[in-house]
């Protein structure tokens, strides 16, 4: 018996956030459903994202949805992304940091290259080079 674990991010603007990750990490939106596809949805909610699947940095899947309440970042969860190539890792770190906050500069550590950034949407990323 097995299962697959995917991060599911609540967003104040899922489309913009997904496009930022697709550009920063390489990837594409593979599916997107809006609340307007459900019967009886109020007009003000029709364009909101009900569910979005995003493939990034190879075959990694992120799921996203628009939230109906303010979204705040949390230090209790981080997304860890490990690369085989230092240049790819550094590029991802730099792009995710645009408009965000460098928490820990991407640099060689005793265990390998590591950096931590909080992106402009409040999501914490831990980037490593294996």
Automatic annotation (TrEMBL):
Pfam families: 3-dmu-9_3-mt. SUPFAM superfamilies: Glyoxalase/Bleomycin resistance protein/Dihydroxybiphenyl dioxygenase. It comes from the Bacteria. It comes from Paenibacillus contaminans. Residues 10-128 form the PhnB-like domain. This is VOC family protein.
